[in-house]
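Morning run. Coffee first, then this:
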Amino acid sequence: MLPDLSVFWVIFFVLLLTIIVDRLLLRPVLKVMQAREGAIRSARELAERSANEARAAAAEFEQKTAAARADIYKQMDEMRRTALSERNEIMARTRAETDADVAAASNRLKAETEDARRRLETDAEALGGIVAERILGRKVS
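And here it is:
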């Protein structure tokens, strides 16, 4: 027995609807889903690449900052050493000038003391002579 022709028509329409649904609905939806999946994948790759670049930039920044700090500390240490050296030179020069001034003053004082001693001796002899003349009432020779 042969099936009724309506069964063939039902099978035909089911196959036709399957093809239409596949072409008009399922394939475009699958294309959109694949496009979104590709966009998500590329966005993730871009985000990972950007994160890696950011980490590399941060590491480079830290390295440059550390190098700059080391350079600044080196310059500060150099300036401190230079300042200490200049200070020591100034102190030595000042000490030498002060020692020279003290020595010159000491020599002047000794010379003035010696001169004053000679004058005092001379004046003492003269005064002694004058006192002796007054006491004796005549010239002492």
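The helical segments are 5-136. Good start to the day.
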